[in-house]
Amino acid sequence: PDTARELLDALAGDAVSADVLLGLLGFAARHNERLTTADESHDIVKNPTVDSDATGHEYVSGTEESAVAPLYLIVGDPSRGTAGSDDRRTHLSAWRLSGLGRQIAELVPMRYSDDAELAKLGNRVAEIGKQWLEAASVEWAIVDEARPEIVVRRDANTSAQWLYGKRVLVLGAGALGAPVAEMCVRGGASHVVVVDRRAVRHGVLVRQPYSDADIGEPKATVLAQRLRHIRPDAKIEAVVGDVCSSELPGDGAAFDLIIDATADRIVRTHLERTRRAYRDRWPTLATLLVGHNATRGIAAIAGARASGGGTDVLRRAGIAARTEATGELRDFADDFFPTEMRTDLFQPEPGCSDATFVGSAAAVTSLTGQLFTGVLAAVSQPDEQQTMSVLFVRLPGGPRDPCPRGTRWISWPNDIVFDDLTGFEVRISARAAAELRAEACRGVRIRGPRVETGGTLLGAFDDAAGVVWIDEATGPPPDSLLSEVHFQHGIAGVDQQLSARREATGKATRFVGMWHTHPYGPAWPSPTDEAGMAALVMPARTAPPRALILIAGGPAEQWTAWLEGYGTPAWYARIVDRTDSDANAQPQLCDVDRHGGPVTWWPGGFATRPLAIPASDLRSYAGPAALGTAALEETDVLSRDIGLALSGGGFRAAAFHLGCLRALHDLRLLNRVRVVSGISGGSLMAALWGYGLADFSEFDRSAVKLLRRGLQHSIAWRALRPSRLTRAAVSAGSALLRPGRPAATRKATRTDCLADALRELAFGDTTMTEAVRVGTDIVLTATDLITGTAVRFGSATSSSSKHGAITEPVEVANAVAASAAFPLLLPAVEQEPLFTRATSRTHHPLLLADGGLYDNLGLTVLQPGRSAHYTHHIYNINYIVSCDAGRGLLQKKAPHFLPGRLKRTVEIIHERAQNEGRGKLHEWAAAGLLDGFTMAYLGMRDERIPVPVADLVPHERVATYPTNFAAMSTRDLDALTLRGEQLIRALLPIYCPRLT
What we know:
Layout: H1 4-12, H2 18-35, H3 38-46, E1 49-52, E2 58-61, E3 71-78, E4 90-97, H4 99-107, H5 116-135, E5 139-141, E6 167-171, H6 177-186, E7 191-196, H7 219-230, E8 235-240, E9 257-260, H8 265-277, E10 284-290, E11 296-302, H9 310-323, H10 330-336, H11 361-380, E12 388-394, E13 407-412, E14 416-419, E15 425-428, H12 430-446, E16 454-462, E17 467-473, E18 481-482, E19 487-488, H13 494-504, E20 510-518, H14 527-534, E21 546-553, H15 556-563, E22 570-577, E23 602-603, H16 615-620, E24 642-646, H17 650-666, E25 673-679, H18 681-691, H19 696-709, H20 712-719, H21 722-737, H22 750-763, E26 777-784, E27 789-794, E28 799-800, E29 804-806, H23 812-819, E30 829-831, E31 834-837, E32 840-843, E33 846-850, H24 852-855, E34 879-884, H25 898-926, E35 932-937, H26 955-958, H27 970-991
Parallel strand pairs: 6-7, 6-9, 7-8, 9-10, 15-17, 20-21, 24-25, 24-34, 25-26, 34-35
Antiparallel strand pairs: 1-2, 3-4, 4-5, 10-11, 11-12, 12-13, 14-15, 16-17, 16-20, 18-19, 18-23, 21-22, 26-27, 26-33, 27-28, 28-29, 29-31, 30-33, 31-32
Helix pairs in contact: 2-4, 4-5, 9-10, 12-17, 17-18, 17-19, 17-27, 18-23, 20-22, 22-23
């Protein structure tokens, strides 16, 4: 309606007459008048404004003689809704009545006065009011509603919604802190505290949200005032002072989120130390940093109850930026964590604060927005396992600039945390804890359950924070001495290891101490340990003047549970001072006895035999697995996220893969393997593990026995038997009479003899669906020479992408033989199984040869994003561990004759195909399809191994071992298995740190 009369007519249907309307307006006007304070009235008089009455005549409001402010009539009207629905939400409409109308309304209630004159006057005013309503005009008023029942917040369903009603502490009110505080207020935070000790200077106006009028005022005070104007209902506090000396709640329980935007190392250290005492009560702490030219940013997030704070997470970020496998974070390492002091410092404008970084308001605002959005995403979806995380962000460049990946997250689980006897807090990373346990498990497997082991600890001391970090742990150097009563740390190779890790981590990780175990005993130094600590000799030339001595032990139940992957052992830690003894002196056997009897000493490193074994024991010694070991079963877990690929390569590959499996067993990762993909010799080892004995030590023994025995004699003996020769002749004749069709008589080739030998010595009549590793699929690959496609024999299903699923049972022995049938050496296997695709069932001929012809690495089975339209083998995995028994680059003579040239041609084609497969791993990881991968490559050049291994089996020692199935000597078997074990133990923690 445009007039008050039309408005009355519209309201008449709801029984609102002119008298009722005037009465309601009068009540509202009187009520509003009582709410008006004297100060507000005074302000109106001081600041008059021009208005107009209902007749269009202008008047000045704010004086005693003038009309008062206009009156608004608000009417609630149900929305139109859907027929049959009761969901009718009330919308508000508002009409603006002139100031004269308000005056009339204020006088109308006098008609109810007990004073007759006033009542008469009130009735007269009511009549005038009715006349005014007949002629007065009304205007629509804009209603700015924020009622949640009809209005959806513009940040609804975003991570910023987490802020609503939260309490936030913002440390720093500069280029990062001020925008973050504003974002918190706009996001609905109920209580925001801003802490800063500096005042506004003219130099900061370039990129900080202050004005010229604010110069000289405390930043925190000015910012708080500005935030109150944005949200008057929010509680905004300003604290002007140093963060380290301000009286803020130490336990952090008064806040839901703490933002450190100071870019101050002293503040970070103060928070790290303060947080130690209240770790269980502190909220999420987010530390924001911007690079020196404001093109990159980092948000370090320590979740509630995280073991470390901002200093801890940033330290991890620096190490990760330098050691990350793809190298895509190298620019962050150079920007935020340079190994040398930056020399290209700039001179800030007069009036600026510290020379922190150069950057525009646009760049800083963009980075701050990205970083804080990431922080809110992290706190709104907390990860109970990965409690510490870091977000790396980059600004976009120009059209011709490189376009690296914009953002990257890296997360870590909590450390194992406890105090040493001197008051330092010891933090053992998950990676270091896994290495400690893996070395203890290897000791059980190799030396027996009660022999102590130990090694070196790498990390850093932080005296200001009172923390010693243990990032990595190594096993015993080769010249160490191990027994059931004492562990003596050696020195061989330690300097090289420390130097390599110090350089790789940008000097962040150094020697910090030594560790050893007390299996089934107290985690407390023995008298021999005490004597050793009293005259401590560091195992490195550049060792610091002190070291952490760490002992792991515990009673039988606790110790065994830790070895099996549950819980933690009992810990003892003490920081001791070094002596001036010769750090290069070779360790000597300690003069200790056990109950007066002789002590058996073992060497460190990857040795598999004690220093001295009685002659009677030597005759019965059958390899590492023959020693007494505790039964350490693989336990089933919900998280099976690893794909394991075992390449081809005959017995060379099988032995190498056995070593890799040993290392994965010691790391307790076999129970996380979702699928094992085997090729040729890798198929043999995959089948032995997947279909053999459930206990790992028994599997180990059976695998060693088979490799030592070999298969060639068994194949030859079966192939030369008269009955076999007769069937071979019949088979050959059948092939001539039926070209292009399978031979009429089966089991007449050397490959069939291989299958028979495997059936007798390893698998019996076991079929592919009878795997013993519950939760893990076994997939063995062969190549169909007819179609040129792969045929997958799997524990879940066997199939061909060309023909569909195989419906007939497939024996494991036959699948392994087909996968290992390398042309020229072993004939292809002819079959015609029944296939099912959709609703059709058809027999198709197959000519099966070595799976390495199609994919010698076994990686295609594990490829992310495979389509169910083409394959039955699709696996959702996060990590790939590829064990490649390839020889690598060797010095070769030039081939001068045709056979040699043909052989070299095949080798080149084969190597190029494998290089392409290795490149796929990098592509999948770079695309974010994998969380990580590790390739244990037998042919890897020794100098390329990121962690030097003192007693490493050299590449040249094993690379030339043939790929046949001949019996292996103990020496060759030990060399191949040890290299596989060494590579997995050296590479996996580097390239898949979250996996260990």
